[in-house]
Specification:
Radius of gyration: 25 Å
Structural class: alpha+beta
CATH superfamily of the largest domain: Chorismate lyase-like
Oligomer: single chain
Mean pLDDT: 86
Number of domains: 2
Shape: elongated
Helix content: 25-40%
Distance between the termini: 38 Å
CATH topology of the largest domain: Chorismate lyase
CATH class of the largest domain: Alpha Beta
CATH architecture of the largest domain: 3-Layer(aba) Sandwich
Low-confidence stretches: 1-8, 244-255
């Protein structure tokens, strides 16, 4: 009776193919523009299905390591810009990690009709209700951040009853939508006098402004937050990640 050969799981084989290709690129053996082995060659090398090889190359293409040209083959993509992964976390957690003590004062808190610009940003009809809150966060009794936040209460049940001095909006929202999408913009600004007074800033001291738009998995805007930090008392850091480029043409065979 012919014995049966146990095969590696497809995910494991895809990881093996990925590691092989990345090793050749990162090690410099395959320079930018070099043609990589065809799907047929990789099928023979790894003893797997063409579909497994195709998915592995497709993923590397989406991440910017490869460029696939229909009818010509798959090539090593040219280097692209670095991607900076910054940790945008709850200010209370940041302070706790430093061993500090966090507290929060509520400056404003109300549910009101959205302005025309706010309704357009949230993709809501004009006049729909939005929760607006302004909070002053302290680290060891030193003001560190002004949080100016809008939330769509229809998309986040229970948020209207939240006491932001007891639980942060960041923590509450992450509990409702643990893996949101969105965008963030970081800019240097010269804040108005009220902001300088609240954050105990000098007359010529700049501020760091982080504006975040957070979306649910279906694309709907959940919240927009504008965070202001004293420019000389706060550092926003991140890690450089492998470059992620725009996916190339993956239609058809690469033979």
């Amino acid at each position: 009776m012919e014995s049966l050969r146990l095969r590696e799981p497809t995910s494991s084989l895809q990881g093996e193919i990925r590691a092989f290709v990345l090793g050749k690129i990162v090690g410099g053996e395959w320079a930018p523009g070099a043609r990589v082995p065809s799907e047929t060659e990789l099928v023979a090398r790894f003893g797997t299905s063409r579909m497994t090889v195709h998915h592995a190359l497709k993923a590397l293409t989406a991440e910017g390591y490869l460029r696939r040209v229909k009818g010509l083959g798959t090539f090593v993509a040219p280097p692209r810009a670095h991607v900076l992964h910054a940790r945008l976390t709850d200010v209370a957690d940041e302070i706790a990690e430093r061993g500090g003590r966090h507290r929060c004062e509520v400056l404003d808190h109300d549910v009101r009709c959205a302005s025309a610009a706010e309704a357009a940003l949230f993709q809501l009809p004009p006049g729909e209700r939005l929760l607006h809150a302004r909070l002053l966060h302290f680290e060891n009794d030193t003001p560190l951040q002004i949080e100016d936040r809008l939330i769509d209460p229809a998309r986040v049940p229970g948020v209207e009853d939240l006491d932001p001095a007891a639980e942060s909006y960041f923590a509450f929202l992450m509990g409702k939508v643990p893996y949101p999408a969105g965008r963030a913009v970081v800019r240097a600004v010269m804040p108005p006098m009220e902001t300088r007074f609240l954050l105990r800033m000098g007359p010529e001291e700049p501020a760091l402004e982080v504006e975040r738009v957070t979306r649910a998995p279906d694309g709907a805007v959940l919240t927009v937050a504008r965070l202001i930090y004293p420019g000389t008392r706060y550092v926003l850091s991140g890690e450089i990640a492998p470059p992620v480029g725009r996916a190339g043409d993956i239609a058809g065979d690469d033979e």
